[in-house]
Amino acid sequence: MTQVIERISATQPPEPSSDTTHWREYFSFSTDHKVIGIQYLVTTFGFYLLGGLMASVIRAELATPDTDLVSSDLYNGLFTVHATVMIFLWIVPAVTGGFGNYLVPLMIGARDMAFPKLNAVAFWIIPPAGALLLSSFFFGAPSTGWTAYPPLSILTDQHVGQAIWIFSIILLGTSSILAAVNFVVTIFSMRMPGMDFFSMPLFCWAILSASGLVLIATPVLAGAMILLGFDLLAGTNFFNPTGGGDPVVYQHLFWFYSHPAVYVMILPVFGIISEILPVHSRKPIFGYKAIAFSSVFICILGLVVWAHHMFTSGTPDWLRIFFMIATLLVAVPTGIKVFSWLATLWGGKLRLESPLLFAIGFVSMFVVGGLSGVMLGSVPVDIHLHDTYFIVAHFHYVLFGGSVFGIYAGFYHWFPKMVGRMLNEFWGKVHFVLTFVGFNLCFLPMHLLGLQGMPRRVAQYDPQFANINVICSIGAFILAISTFPFLFNAAWSWFYGPKAVDNPWNALTLEWTTSSPPHPHNWIGEPVLATGPYDYGVPMDEFEEESMFTGTID
Amino acid sequence: MQGSTIDSANVVELEHSDDATIAHTAEHHSEHPDLRVFGLLVFLGSEGMLFMGLFAAYLTFRAVAPAWPPEGTPKLETLLPAINTVILVSSSFVIHQADHAIKKDDIKAVRWWFLATFLMGATFLAGQVYEYMHLEFGLTSSLFASTFYVLTGFHGFHVFVGLTLIAIMGIKSFKPGAFLGGKHFGIEAASIYWHFVDVIWIVLFLMLYIL
């Protein structure tokens, strides 16, 4: 034995800080999936704050019918960059790169992702790409909306800004594809012995489905960006009708990615919710296989609904009917999930703390967004509501009421594991109430604005809409303020919060079987798969219960 | 005394697990060697979707246009591209031989097959440049011309990347012991990538010149 130890220490001296992660790691090209996950979450949250700042300026401008705060040009730039930041630099990288990287290896009992260096590369593309995008404000920000429809985006005055936008989208897409390759290979090939696909936590199914969508759809967006870039910079006419091009082709390519992108942003959050609800209601998940397969079904169906964004783009009737039916079908797997979640909660011992509050907030808000989605999926309604504030209301219910609520739920649930300290529960509840009230005050009235015909993407509007817009703006400011309790709570708890035990929620998935925060190699020794991920309330003998539910409080 | 026996047993146990942890560390933060081919295939599937998007755009432009190619555009010469196609497709078989050879650890044969593939690929690129120089239309002449240049150019870029990979692996193979004993992912990757470039070209050739 002594000889063995000597040999090992001779060849590889153990690092001095090998059982904790040094803070410098977080600022380095680290290949540890947990460090990368936290790098993603912190960086993207920073972009979220910037995007939120833009949103606040937008809502301040819209508090009155005239353009009295920012010029129309700047307003156009603000809503374009706001959307781009929120989609490409916040939700997509936070839910896949952030939570996915941190949790997938821990949940499947692996030491790391399949390709740790590739993982680090995928992350380190994001900060420069984000800085590039934001730098466009110095050259005239792109102002054609995050959809960048040609011919407007080709003929725009903000040539430089538009070109910067195209390059940053290509960079961010590349990062997203590299991360997805890693997830697919990791989930397929690195599960610990004894864990088959159906004993994997549902979050892994969700990440797998989302990665499939990224791999299939993102390259097509890159293709659209390449052609748009040629039109903008080299004088070709792919999408310019005056030169024989066809702008509708761009819309098809763009939405072939950008509709599935919605599912990339929401599927991992579905996974987060499927993890949180059983733990905090102390019940097994209802319909494991139904939830797992509905993720895959959404992934497949999500690839053939894109033209519902183009019902008013001269799409022929037969095609509109097809895309309408396909779109409405998405409600089926989504409904399966929602009902499974409700059945999980039903009769459970609910622990109404911040993670569950945000998770229930997610389910209720997402249902609103889903239902308005069903309305918009039908052609006649869409033709009436196209490009009105109803659309803005709809996708904010999906992306904020859905994705962002889910991300917050995930933050509250996994913060003790990631940081090793507990968040303050009181400020968590304050955060939830402010977010919930602010969000609904801001976006619920927008449905009404849309039905009354207020167009989106305008800095000036008819005075008849003024009153409702004031309500929306007040809601937006409450939403902005709601971020502060969370920020201070997170920052304070990171350093001074009460120490977290290994398993503060008495959860059964594997990430809770290691220390908080986990050892750099995830487990000292090998992880042990003692139960299924959701075997709550299953009778077991005393010994097991003891070891399972007390964690290791030394 | 009973206790101390257990303690010492635990110590041994702990040392064992430390041993295991340190052994893990060595491979923990590096690429997982067995999974790289799988990863490359997933990535190339995604890369293929990029071409699929461009192909779909091309076919739509073509279907919508009143005349394709537009009247007055000189017809594309097919002889040179056809020869080029034959060269590129056969190069796929040539690099496949390198794959065979490395499995027998025959690094010398790999170098020769790689050299042959490289020359064939370079001939293809040279042929394409020659074709570009003798075409009577430019990038912005018409939608037809733009799609032609962007599609072939984008594929040509991939050929260039493939050639670079082959060259790097060829040079690396002169390091003593390189790629031997089953550690030949680099050779395999270059050859898989080359097949990919080849398959894309076949589709492209059929669409642009034959259809």
Strand fraction of chain B equals under 5%
Largest sheet of chain A: none
Major sheet attributes of chain B: none
| CATH class descriptor of chain A | Mainly Alpha
Helical percentage of chain A: 55-70%
Account of the protein in words:
The complex is a heterodimer of chains A (554) and B (211). Chain A is mostly helical. Chain A has one domain (34-550): Cytochrome C Oxidase, Chain A, CATH 1.20.210. Chain A has 17 helices and no strands. Chain A has helices at residues 2-11, 33-61, 72-107, 116-135, 152-155, 159-189, 202-233, 247-281, 288-301, 317-329, 331-345, 354-377, 379-385, 389-419, 425-451, 466-496, 542-550. In chain A, helix 4 packs antiparallel against helix 6, helix 7 (202-233) packs antiparallel against helix 8 and helix 8 packs parallel to helix 11. Chain A is globular and about 65 Å long. Chain B is an all-alpha fold and 211 residues long. Chain B has 6 helices and no strands. In chain B, helix 2 packs antiparallel against helix 5, helix 2 (36-64) packs parallel to helix 6 and helix 5 packs antiparallel against helix 6 (185-210). Chain B has 2 domains: 1-30; 31-210, Four Helix Bundle (Hemerythrin (Met), subunit A) (Up-down Bundle), CATH 1.20.120.80. The model of chain B is unreliable at 1-27 (pLDDT under 50). Chain B is elongated.
Draw up the topology in text.
The complex is a heterodimer of chains A (554) and B (211).
Chain A: H1 2-11, H2 33-61, H3 72-107, H4 116-135, H5 152-155, H6 159-189, H7 202-233, H8 247-281, H9 288-301, H10 317-329, H11 331-345, H12 354-377, H13 379-385, H14 389-419, H15 425-451, H16 466-496, H17 542-550
Chain B: H1 2-28, H2 36-64, H3 79-103, H4 107-134, H5 143-172, H6 185-210
Helix pairs in contact in B: 2-5, 2-6, 3-4, 3-6, 4-5, 5-6
